[in-house]
Amino acid sequence: MEILDLKGSLKFSPERHVYTVLADTPFCSVSVVGWEPGRSSPIHSHPGADEIYHVLEGEGLFSDGRKESRVGLGGTVFFPAGEAHRVRSLARMVLYRVQAGTDRHPEPLESWPAA
After folding, report:
1. CB atoms near residue 88 (< 10 Å)
2. Cβ neighbours, 10 Å, residue 63
3. Is the CATH number 3.40.50.300 carried by domain 20-105?
């Protein structure tokens, strides 16, 4: 068993969102992510891993290229493996992130895939 310290591990940067990995195994990665207002991830996917975000603070826009949803405190977003997505912070935002799968690398995309 491992007890994870989300608050003590949280970091922010004005240049980009900051992932702090709290636990990492061959099958799963757990992190806390600090986002300053107006930050955005590139459009990307994780071909071999599901990605789950839970909003602990603030709010953001979560998009899969077909739908964009405003999600705030207490909301959870699930992107299945291979689904293109992007996250943008509307306010200072703290996310709890779980990646489940053996190949969690991000695959950057130039634009949204054709529907």
Report:
1. 18
2. 20
3. no
Q: Are strands 48-57 and 76-79 parallel, antiparallel or unpaired?
A: antiparallel
pLDDT at 14: 93
Tens digits of residue pLDDT in 26-58: 999 999 999 999 999 999 999 999 999 999 999
* One-character DSSP codes across 29-95: EEEEEEE-TT-BPPSEE-TEEEEEEEEEESEEEEE-SS-EEEEETT-EEEE-TT--BEEEESSSEEE
Q: What is the pTM of this model?
A: 0.94
Map out the domains of the chain as residue ranges: 20-105
